[in-house]
Amino acid sequence: MSKSNPLDGKAVLVTGAGGGIGRAIAIEAAKAGASVLVNDLGATLGGERESSEAAQSAVTEIERAGGRAIANGDDVSDREGAARMIRQATDAFGRLDAVINNAGILRDCFFHKMSYEDFDAVVKVHLYGTFNVSRAAADVFREQKSGAMIHMTSTSGLIGNLAQANYSAAKLGVAALSKSMALDLARWNIRSNCIAPFAWSRMTSSIKVDSLEQELRVEQMKLMVPEKIAPLALWLASDAATHVTGQIFAVRNNEIFLMSQPRPVRSVHRDEGWTIDSVDTHAIPALKANFQPLEVSADVFCWDPV
């Protein structure tokens, strides 16, 4: 692997790459030597189609810099659309080496006010979209006996956030889906990892600011540009990462984190089994010191980005 062109000769598909994190990753992938399929539906933050130019705009920027890219406007939540983008990549580039599942929408709302439609739409793009693109890519990867999948999860799912039940459920589902893919596809040298990105983009620009605390948080987030996510994502797509699979990372400005995954933290046992009363008097008092508080992402990542 060339240090200057670590993705030389590789083909990479980036979904939701018309702007924000996806666009930054696509542009940096091309700089690193990859041929890039830039997918973007050209939708609003809520998922409604708005423009067909988003993907082509990123392609034009890549080509002006001397890179190779093609545009795709399919919808990741549509199974046939996902299959088309995989075929387009292999037809154009002769191969496909990595998929970066970045496409997403937001329809934030407190749970007791959330409609079925808003829950369904967000889950379909994030969770079903990740499945659709990865499932189509898996057939190509299995045939060539190699491939990398990188999925964008979120601390909204891993930790929690207010008014994001749809988004949080989808993003935690992405982490579980990634682990299952890592387990099922390892025999073909296919790896699957997640990144929880912190970056100022169209997605985070929708954060409501109604207090000084939130205003300060938003100002901190604006320091975290999308380009900061690209190095880890593209390293995971490179041959240097062939030994890394089933992991969850986070990137926060100049920091990279390895996130924990659920494991038992404490247990209690009674030879005679449990009753409702002994659960109350024995089990819960013994376990409650290790209960997780009702925290949101900002409570855990509470220091200034460095």
Structure notes:
This protein has 306 residues and is an alpha/beta fold. The chain has a single domain, classed as NAD(P)-binding Rossmann-like Domain (Rossmann fold, 3-Layer(aba) Sandwich), CATH 3.40.50.720. Helix content is 41%, strand content 14%. The chain contains 10 helices and 8 strands. The protein has helices spanning 20-31, 54-64, 79-93, 116-144, 155-158, 165-185, 212-221, 230-237, 276-287, 297-300, and strands at 11-14, 35-39, 68-72, 98-101, 147-152, 190-198, 248-252, 255-258. An 8-stranded mixed β-sheet has the order 3-2-1-4-5-6-7-8, sandwiched between helices. Helix 3 runs parallel beside helix 4 (116-144) and helix 4 (116-144) packs parallel to helix 6 (165-185).
SSE topology:
Blueprint: E1 11-14, H1 20-31, E2 35-39, H2 54-64, E3 68-72, H3 79-93, E4 98-101, H4 116-144, E5 147-152, H5 155-158, H6 165-185, E6 190-198, H7 212-221, H8 230-237, E7 248-252, E8 255-258, H9 276-287, H10 297-300
Parallel strand pairs: 1-2, 1-4, 2-3, 4-5, 5-6, 6-7
Antiparallel strand pairs: 7-8
Helix pairs in contact: 1-2, 1-8, 3-4, 4-6
- SS content category: alpha/beta
CATH class: Alpha Beta
Largest sheet: 8 strands, mixed
CATH architectural type: 3-Layer(aba) Sandwich
Number of strands: 8
Residue-averaged pLDDT, rounded? Answer: 93
Portion in beta strands = 5-15%
Strand order of the largest sheet: 3-2-1-4-5-6-7-8
> How large is the radius of gyration?
21 Å
What is the first-to-last residue Cα distance? Answer: 30 Å
Order of helices and strands: EHEHEHEHEHHEHHEEHH
What is the count of helical runs?
Answer: 10
Domain count: 1
Pfam families: adh_short
Family: Belongs to the short-chain dehydrogenases/reductases (SDR) family.
Keywords: Oxidoreductase
GO molecular function: oxidoreductase activity
